[in-house]
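[Meeting: bench + compute handoff]

Bench side (C.D.) handed over the final construct sequence. Compute side (W.E.) agreed to return the predicted structure before the next meeting so the bench team could plan truncations. Sequence as handed over:
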Amino acid sequence: MRSVGLKRPASLGAFLLLAIAIGWLAVVIVLPLVSVFAEALRKGVPAYLEAFRDPDGQAAIRLTLLVAGICVPLNAVFGLAAAWAVAKFDFRGKGFLLTLIDLPFSISPVISGLVWVLLFGANGWFGPALEAAGIKVIFTVTALVLATLLVTLPFVARELIPLMAEQGTDEETAAVTLGARGWTTFLKVTLPNVKWALLYGVLLCTARAMGEFGAVSVVSGHIRGKTNTMPLHVEVLYNEYDFVGAFAIASLLAGLALVTLALKAGLEWRYADELSAGRRH
């Protein structure tokens, strides 16, 4: 019979540390969020809604969703492929591939944007040849997608690699032994085992794609209504002293962040449930 351990009462020091942690979170997270919504509604709801009727603001929202809608599926496919390769196979250069996946975590987003300028800018490696062919990359939506792809590349892969490595290859080997083909094995065995981790990585990738500022700022050219995403549009409005408009768009980003946080908490709960069920069986 398993003995049940009794929890010791929390000490005064533990309560003090908890109070410090909660107070710090309130200062650096809760107060900024409250101030964003308070400033956005400072002149009332009509002024708040007017910011979303602005054509440039609507274009920024559409562009942000477009860039995220392109980058997230591409990084989800890459993350699955990279995690499958790293976790299920041994090959020469595996360590180098892991380093490349982690590289966007270790460099500034501004550098991530400058990389594309050096490659496709007017004085870049390929820029003059592309311009001669009538193809422009920098200061276009293409540049925004490339910059966002780079900074969001690790999120899905890094959620899947540890889980796939822990699961091993026993189930896939059994499926192949029973006659399943590679694609069937992936769809029927591998994908169901990693679905919650995949959704979690996609969620993080989406949040970063919509909120990215540094990399897209370098390659966008800040063309209003064309290459300004929501974070860039907030900067433009703030610099023009349109504080209500700036904080209104910022409140939309903050709202998306809160939705992301709620979904993240739900996925963590469900994901932990699946793992505990897997251990019991």
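W.E. noted at the follow-up: Confidence is low (pLDDT under 50) at residues 1-6, 275-281. C.D. will use this when planning the next construct.
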